[in-house]
């Protein structure tokens, strides 16, 4: 084998190796984001529920969590999604519904006090757990679940005003008994479709 031929073979091998490595990296990225593997959504948190009790992710182990991040001053999207969650649970067979805990987490802790959460969540389901906390605690929880949010002021509104809305992502996450991400439901999912998706997961995984 000539030296020139050997160099060509080594060059081809190098290109193929780099390409394979890149593809494997991309596959790993796709798995993490598509739900075909364990997505990087969820993690430790420490918050306070509507009864003033400290709650962590460990309190929900052994059950499925149906979790949504929003805020009580939300004029439309949040109440709509929370109502869908409540209706979806009511659509389920009671034996399956009992294995799922609906959870609402505030991204507006400055206004969403324990009392505000306590007055809010019963409107959507009698078993819904509402969670809030300090700014640091809610920020950490939102970051763990890859939730985007930011204050939004009307034109001309001073930035220290309490008359603001919260821009935020709107997904309902279904977390497994082990606290790991299972799947999500997009905004606009019908209660019947959400119930069907939950039931499929619980029946498959137990």
UniProtKB/TrEMBL annotation:
Gene3D superfamilies given in the database record: Glutaredoxin
Binding residue positions for Cu cation: 74, 78, 168
The entry's keywords: Copper, Disulfide bond, Metal-binding
Keyword Iron: no
GO function term, MF aspect, one: metal ion binding
Pfam families for the chain: SCO1-SenC (PF02630)
Origin: domain of life: Bacteria
Disulphide bridges: 74-78
Segments traversing the membrane: none
Coiled-coil region(s): none
Keyword Metal-binding among record annotations: yes
Record InterPro entries: SCO1/SenC (IPR003782), Thioredoxin-like_sf (IPR036249)
Annotated PANTHER family: ELECTRON TRANSPORT PROTIN SCO1/SENC FAMILY MEMBER, LINALOOL DEHYDRATASE_ISOMERASE DOMAIN-CONTAINING PROTEIN
Family as reported in the entry's similarity comment: Belongs to the SCO1/2 family.
Protein name: Electron transporter SenC
Native organism taxonomy: Bacteria, Pseudomonadati, Pseudomonadota, Alphaproteobacteria, Rhodospirillales
